[in-house]
Structure formats: C-alpha cells, structure tokens
Fold ParM/StbA family protein.
Amino acid sequence: MLKETVLIAVDCGKYATKAILKSKDKHAITVFRTKMQEVEKVGIDVNPGSYEVTYNKKAYLLGESVNEIYSSFDLTKKIDLHKICIYTAITDLLHITNLQAENVKIHLAVNIPISAYKDSTTKQDYKDFIENNGEPFLFSLNGNPYYLHLTDVTVVFEGVGIIYEEMEQLNGKHTAVIDIGGLNTTYCTFSGINPIFDSMTVSNLGINILKGKIGKMINERFGVTVTPNDLERILQNGYFSNAGKVYDESKELIEQMKAQHFREIVEFAKSRDYTFNNVDIHFVGGGSYMLSDTIQKEFPHARIVVNPQIANLKSFLRILEVKHGL
C-alpha cells in the first residue's frame, strides 16, 4: 500500500510549541505551551491546550495546565521535554486531521538554535535523537496510541522568519531577521534566501530574562514576591496588582523595563557588527509580539511580521514543500 505523503513542521520553543501539517488535501495547526510534568497515573482529565501522554512507560502532563516552574531554561534542545513536545505535536496533528500514523509517510522539520545548526555533529546528533535512532516507537496521546517511525527529519535553524515563505518577494534583497524567543534572541542576515554564515549569532536575551528582571523589580519596589505563574500574567497584563489593587506605578516601570530590554537586544546585535544599514529588518518570534510597541518606537520602519510567533514555522513548512514537491 502506497503511503500518503504528510509534511509536518515543528517549531519547539522554550515558551511554546507550534506545529503545522500539510498533506495533499489537509491542513492543520497546533500551538501549546512547552511545559511538561511527570505524573503518577494516566486517566487525568485535561483541558484544551493540555495533553496527557505516555512515552517509554512514563506518563506526562503537557501544556497549559502545567505550572510555570516546569518551564525549561536549558539552552540545549536535546532533552526529553523537547522530544516529547515534538511527538505530542505530531500526534495531535494526526488526530485533528483524522490521519492514521501507519498509513502516512511523515516528512518532519524540527528546529535547533543557530549555534547548534552551525556544528554538523550537533545537528546530526539532534536528528538521530528525534528519529529515536531510526527505531519505531509507541506514543500515546490522551489515551490514543500511535506507532511512529520517523526516518526523514530535516533539521532547520531558528531565526529564519518568513524568508522562505516569501522567497520570490525577497529575492535580491538583504534582510536582517531578529527572532525574539522565550530564552534566546537569534540574529541572522540573508542575501535573498541565503543566510550569511558570519551573521548567525544568538544572545540569551529572551523574554524569560525580562520576566526575571520584572520579578526582581516588583520584589524590591513593592515588597512582594511573585511566582513564575504571576510573572506570566503580569507581563501579559502590563501591570502588577495585589489583593485586587492595581499599582499604577508598575505600568510605567514595566514599560521602561521592556524598552531597556529591547535596547539590550539591539546593542548585542551592534556588538556583533550589525549596523542595520541598507537592509530590511524583520522582527519575528513571540517576544516580538510582546515588545511590539517598543519595537515600533525604536524601529518605526522595521517590519514586525504578522503572527510573528509562527513566522519561523511557515518557512520550515516551505522548506519541506520545496524538498518534497508538495
């Protein structure tokens, strides 16, 4: 039996896992938080955006229902959290599209940091890690078993933005892409669709660093200790409140800290020979969305890509489309 070709691109970030599926007649997307907690037993009721999975005889809860303390601050992606989130994304997309794992040939694209991508050994190790060293394996999503055999994984680098999604429009142009993620900010300049090797760099100036600074400020200024869960809401809301009282002063302080954090992102780029002269500038990643007001003030002529949190993902899928002719 000839198996149906299925393309799946996964952008597994420290904050969120985003994935997209495309086949001849189906298309689906899934997004969930990159948080995982090992649990004692199966059969947990899960809400939308959360999943109960089993892998290697262990049960895990993933996604929104997991406390922020289970977020990863590990620089490497070669950890079980990322592997299991990728497998969760794959099986969730198969579930959404009603595709059977045994009837499809999955061509998968997964991301690694730009620094790891530049090392061929590290890149191959991660490919083997995600492919389970070529061995088939059983994975259960919300009680539904999937027998997966991943033999065609393409490793792509973070910081691509929409370069490959808009290949025709960007041909002949120079574009600097700044990808503000949860843990890192990635920088890369492209000549057309070709990355300039020496421009590839990464800083640790992700949004999680900003959250830590805001937490320290609130503790020192208002004498209150905040948890990782609190910080997530504070950054989303743009202010700090306690016992129902909104501290108006916190609004301006948080905006100032966001602006300072963005300036640090820009100064890091300049320290790596980014002049921003005669290039189009694209901001992508979930952090670009959170810092959009600041970016527009500091770089009014730059482009904050629409839905910046899935910009990389669209290019990953385009790479698979070109590679496999779908």
Observations:
- The mean pLDDT is 93.
